């Protein structure tokens, strides 16, 4: 299994040259299985960077999992070229958040005056699946997907990917505010991370420093120290920190990464365009 980082910036995209190393596109990931299964997670501006890695015409349908419906996780979808390709279809799967389904949100996103082509247009090839909080798991070929709700304004979802044939496992938890999580939310998250066995790789929101929290409590994000503490509680999976603060340039993020690795050697900050092998090495 591999995790490809299309974009790892949080809140809004940045284009300044000083953000080139870690990237300026907002959240979008691709999870690929050993047998060729490919699942997209979120549709920020980084989605465009994953286009060439999506199944070509005539292959298996593409799947997009949405963690939640904030703009920075959706803004890349209307311009995603494969949804206008007659030979391909995109299935969008998500939990309901605040009474909103993915189909309702995306229908509005494609509506005038926001976008020129409505979702109902015959040239758009998109289907929707409403996930249930209690499961059952989603089977994408040989990759099994499960989830849990997380603390974030309006709600968000963490997704776990398991590939039994290789033993690879990955938990993607962008947009989670660990400090605001209830005891039940923390227990559900840790249970997902430990069942059926401890997750091998954790990709977790770490937008803030501890000093940021007094002014940004309730904004929906965690600190890198909280992400490290979660990884330590899970017996030390490899840790990739995501949802970088748009105010931070490469020099600042590199300094943070050095701090992080001093605290937890198996951690890195996600870099746009990188491909991470899960479960080996």
Short description, anyone?
The chain has 281 residues and is α/β, with parallel strands linked by helices.
Description of the molecule:
By secondary structure, the chain is of the alpha/beta class. It has a single domain (2-277), classed as Ribonuclease Z/Hydroxyacylglutathione hydrolase-like (Metallo-beta-lactamase, Chain A), CATH 3.60.15.10. It has helices at residues 102-109, 183-194, 213-216, 224-233, 250-263, and strands at residues 2-7, 28-32, 38-41, 62-65, 90-94, 126-130, 138-140, 143-150, 156-163, 168-173, 201-205, 238-242, 267-269, 275-277. The strands form two sheets. The chain has a seven-stranded mixed β-sheet, with no helix packed on it. The model has no long low-confidence stretch (mean pLDDT 94).
Keywords:
281 residues, alpha/beta, seven-stranded mixed β-sheet, 17% helix, 25% strand
Structural topology:
Blueprint: E1 2-7, E2 28-32, E3 38-41, E4 62-65, E5 90-94, H1 102-109, E6 126-130, E7 138-140, E8 143-150, E9 156-163, E10 168-173, H2 183-194, E11 201-205, H3 213-216, H4 224-233, E12 238-242, H5 250-263, E13 267-269, E14 275-277
Parallel strand pairs: 3-4, 4-5, 5-6, 10-11, 11-12, 12-13
Antiparallel strand pairs: 1-2, 1-14, 2-3, 7-8, 8-9, 9-10
């Amino acid at each position: 299994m591999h995790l490809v980082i299309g974009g790892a910036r949080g809140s809004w995209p940045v284009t300044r040259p000083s953000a080139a190393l870690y990237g300026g596109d907002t959240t979008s990931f691709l999870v690929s299985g050993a047998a060729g299964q490919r699942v997209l997670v979120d549709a920020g501006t980084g989605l465009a960077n994953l286009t060439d890695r999506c199944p070509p015409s005539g292959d298996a349908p593409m799947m997009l999992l949405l963690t939640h419906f904030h703009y920075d996780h959706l803004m890349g979808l209307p311009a995603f070229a494969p949804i206008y390709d007659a030979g391909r279809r995109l299935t969008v799967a998500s939990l309901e958040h605040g009474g909103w389904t993915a189909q309702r949100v995306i229908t509005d996103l494609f509506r005038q005056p926001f976008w020129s082509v409505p979702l109902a247009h015959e040239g758009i090839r998109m289907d929707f699946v409403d996930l249930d909080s209690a499961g059952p798991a989603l089977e994408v070929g040989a990759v099994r997907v499960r989830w849990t709700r997380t603390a974030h304004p309006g709600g968000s979802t963490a997704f776990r990917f398991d590939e039994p044939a290789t033993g690879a496992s990955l938990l993607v938890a962008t947009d989670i505010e660990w400090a605001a999580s209830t005891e039940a939310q923390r227990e559900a998250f840790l249970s997902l991370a430990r069942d059926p066995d401890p997750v091998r790789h954790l990709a977790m929101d770490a937008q803030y420093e501890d000093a940021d929290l007094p002014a940004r409590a309730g904004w929906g994000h965690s600190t890198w120290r909280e992400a490290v503490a979660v990884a330590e509680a899970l017996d030390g999976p490899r840790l990739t920190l995501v949802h970088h603060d748009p105010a931070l340039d490469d020099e600042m993020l590199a300094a943070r990464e050095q701090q992080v690795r001093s605290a937890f050697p198996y951690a890195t900050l996600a870099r746009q365009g990188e491909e991470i092998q899960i479960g080996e090495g």
